[in-house]
Amino acid sequence: NHSSTMISLKPKEIAIPKRKKILVFAPHPDDEVFGPGGTLYLLRKTCRIKIIYVTSGRNEEEQILREKEANNLCDNFKFERHFLRHQQNFFSLNKNTESQIIKITRDYKPDIIFTPFFLDDNNDHQKVKKIFLKLNKFKRIKVWCYQIYSVIKGNYYVNITNYNIQKRKMIRFYKSENKVRNWESWVMSMNVINSRFMPRSKKISYAEMF
Hints:
By secondary structure, the chain is of the alpha/beta class. The protein has helices spanning 31-34, 37-43, 60-77, 95-108, 123-134, 164-171, 175-178, 183-194, and strands at residues 12-13, 21-26, 48-57, 80-87, 112-116, 142-146, 156-159, 207-209. Strands 4-3-2-5-6 form a five-stranded parallel sheet, with helices on both faces. A three-stranded mixed sheet has the order 1-7-8. The longest helix has 18 residues, at 60-77. It is globular.
């Protein structure tokens, strides 16, 4: 028998950067809110934020509706946006799409890219991860991988306790998706679970994981 030492990798709180250009890859309209919505709300105070919506819906009617909801959100919170208009669940990363994404990134010159966490268990989220891999030539760009479905421990967290009401309001912009599931309850519950890495408090706390 021999003894071994278990290493505890506890996520650390990350400071909100200021005066940066942020490029957010959202597999679907709503992921940018369900994942890092509270963090984007904080960043918007001093940073320029552009969201790339990779898909818009399963069919033309749904695409129109989802893009309308996304546009309302972006108008309200002063986010720039670009729709690639792929079909949800059925898009592929062909050469044309790759070159378009590279051009958007090169023209925008972001300091930080937000992309879904590599091990997130949604197929479209996995495909968007591959978009990031196509951008590895942009060495100077920092990458924040955000949590949507995955509950795997991250490296960092952002304390959004004082801004949970604002995140709830952002979630409610996607009325069509909230008819399918109570996403506000689902998402905010995950943020509560994430708060286990924060200093202990008797009040309900919220954290987004990266």
